[in-house]
Structures are given as C-alpha cells and as structure tokens.
Amino acid sequence: MWDYTDKVREHFLNPKNVGEVENPDGIGEVGSIACGDALKLTFRLGKDKKIAEARFKTFGCASAIASSSVLTEMIIGKTLEEVEKISNDDIAMALGGLPKEKIHCSVMGQEALEKAIAYYKGEPEKILEGEIICHCFNVTDVDIRRAVQEKGLTSLEDVTGYLKAGGGCGNCHEEILQIIQKSQGMTILEPKKPAAGMTNLQKIRKIEETLESEIKPALIRDGGNIELVDVDGNRVLVRLQGACATCSRSRITLKDHVEARLRTLVAHDLVVEEA
Ligand code: FES
C-alpha cells in the first residue's frame, strides 16, 4: 500500500478544477492512455495576464489526479513568468510529499505545464534529446542520466518511480541499469549471452555468487533477505525472507531487482520465480 499524505487523499477524493477550459490560451498534453498515464492541462489568461482559469483531465492513479489538481490551484492567479518556475518538486511538496514510486505523477504535471506555456507562446514541440531507451514511455537516455545524477537515483525501481521508464513491458530494464551503473562510475557489465559453455553447476555457482555479492546486501539493509532454492534450466527459484517476504512490493523486488541483476550478470534468459 502506498503511504499517501492527507493532502494527496483530499485532492484525490475531491479534485479541484476538473475538465477543460473553453477557448484556452494554453494546452499541454503528456503521456498516453495506452501507457496508463495521461494528462491534459488547459488554462486561460485574464486581462491582467495572470492565469484566470486552469483545468485538467487525467487518466491515471490517485497521485496523478492529486498532482494535477494541486497544480491547477498553484497556477491560478499567477503570471506565466511565475508558473514557469514551478518544478515537479514544488508540486510534490504542495501535496506534502509523494511516495517515491509516484514522483513521475508530479513530473507529468510539470511537463504538461511546460507544454501548455509553450503552446501559448507558439513555441515548437520540444525535440527529444538523446536516444529513446524506454519505448513504452518515450524516455531517453538523456532523461534517465539527468534524473539519476540530479536526483541521486540508484536503482531501476527509483528510475521507474521518477520517470515511469521501465514500468511497462520491461524490455528496457537492462539498458536503464547500465545507465545507472555508468552514472555511478561502475564498470559496465554487458548482459551475458545464454550460458553457452557454462555447465549447469557453473551457472548455479555464478547465480549463488551474484546473489551473495550483488543482491543480498541491499535486501539485508532493508531488513530482508533471499535464499536460492533451486535452478531448473533457466528458472531460478528463490525464497524471499524477513521484510521482503511480507512486503507488498515483493514481486517488484523479484523482477526489477533480482531478475534484472541476474540477467545482467549471469545470463540474459534467466527467469526468477518464488519457490
Ligand atoms: S520499453 Fe517497455 S517498459 Fe521500457
């Protein structure tokens, strides 16, 4: 269960300024319904050039609704120069904070605002910088690198929480992990090909070693642990222990952390399952 503040709950249960402004001056649309998160922000300026009306429509979770709702409240009555300075951190702070897995909702709000202002100014659509790494959410290597460096993200889970990158099909997980490792100055370990030439015993040993050195320390730090139960072909059967066993996010830990690391460091076709 996410830990939501009262402010998030209030804006989710009683969202403000839902809908679309008629004849808007600014329109900003981000995300896509196919990806599960979309936001349309519209605003109208008054004669004093301050935002007189702002409305939103969103398809997303409680945090997306709350972020959009609070954003409209933040911008009404302000000039464009003032609202241009609003960052995603400001949106999250206005809600008393968001779970780190939901920060991308405030990022989406800030991006919609940026697009709506660009629309008003008649500026062309911003060209994506870099190469798209996550095709499900249109996130580039430049976006990921910037977020990792500026926000101190250290795991795939952090990146998904912040940018949503990696939150869909999962095909980009290895590339995201490599960007994180590179940004942290770690040696990049290329994903291993199927364990050609590795005997079954060597593969099991390699899995054990990787669990010990690369995976267990982080889980133990969070009050959990993991035990290798069996290896059956490419299936790696494990048992989560301690806090990890009872955590509602255990499946995410298993797939985004354990499986992704084993695929990168041992063999790319491993599938991790709970025994
Ligand atoms: S490409 Fe599908 S989650 Fe990134």
From TrEMBL:
- List the cofactors: [2Fe-2S] cluster
Keyword DNA-binding applies: no
Q: Which InterPro entries match?
A: BFD-like_2Fe2S-bd_dom, BFD-like_2Fe2S-bd_dom_sf, FSCA_dom_sf, N_fixation_NifU, NIF_FeS_clus_asmbl_NifU, NIF_FeS_clus_asmbl_NifU_C, NIF_FeS_clus_asmbl_NifU_N
Please state every residue range assigned to the domain named NIF system FeS cluster assembly NifU C-terminal. Answer: 207-272
Pfam families to which the protein is assigned, alphabetical: Fer2_BFD (PF04324), NifU (PF01106), NifU_N (PF01592)
> Boundaries of each NIF system FeS cluster assembly NifU N-terminal domain copy?
4-124
Keywords in alphabetical order: 2Fe-2S, Iron, Iron-sulfur, Metal-binding, Nitrogen fixation
The UniProt record lists the BFD-like [2Fe-2S]-binding domain at 132-181
Query: Function, please?
Result: May be involved in the formation or repair of [Fe-S] clusters present in iron-sulfur proteins.
PANTHER family found in the cross-reference section: IRON-SULFUR CLUSTER ASSEMBLY ENZYME NIFU HOMOLOG (PTHR10093)
Q: Which family does it belong to?
A: Belongs to the NifU family.
Q: What is this protein called?
A: Nitrogen fixation protein NifU
What organism does the record attribute this protein to? Desulfobotulus pelophilus
The organism's taxonomy opens as:
Bacteria, Pseudomonadati, Thermodesulfobacteriota, Desulfobacteria, Desulfobacterales
Q: Which gene encodes it?
A: nifU
